[in-house]
Amino acid sequence: MTCNDVQENLVAYIHGELNKEAVMEIHRHLSTCEACVQEELELRKINRLLDRYHFEVLPENFDEELHRKLKQIEKPREKVHSDFRRIVYAIAATIIFMMGIQFFGYRFMQASRQPVHFKDFPTTQAVFKPAEQRIETKTSLKERFVEKYLQSSKKGATKIRRD
Fold first, then answer.
1. Cα–Cα distance measured from residue 10 to residue 34, given in angstroms and rounded to the nearest whole number
2. Which of 38, 140, 151, 161 lies at 20 to 30 Å from 127 by C-alpha?
3. DSSP assignment of 117-147, as one string?
4. Global pTM?
């Protein structure tokens, strides 16, 4: 028998729960192994200490009664957790609801606005000209550009002819 086998069976050996063959093998091993003898002595000391104390026998329904009492103690905790969950869910629902209102309100406001067109904004020339020089015309920006180009090209042609 190895040390592991002996140590696994030492408690049964001490209490006399093994058959004669196993007891003989453990006796042989204990006569040669000092570590296993020390283990046996420690277990016997522990048994003697435990024998000094008087242990009361528990009633038959002790487990059921203990379980019932523990359930009664745990119920208020569960109620606290469920109340806390309700509060958290209410806050989360409120936040989601407010975000939905904000999103759809923004969409509604965007839909009710008139679209912005480029022609609604004044050109830089109209902004920086003095008020008396501003001429309100209904020509497009492209037409005004072509007119100015033609005017500048006429001035350039007259300068060349004078020379």
1. 14
2. 151
3. -GGGSPPHHHHHS-GGG-------HHHHHHH
4. 0.36
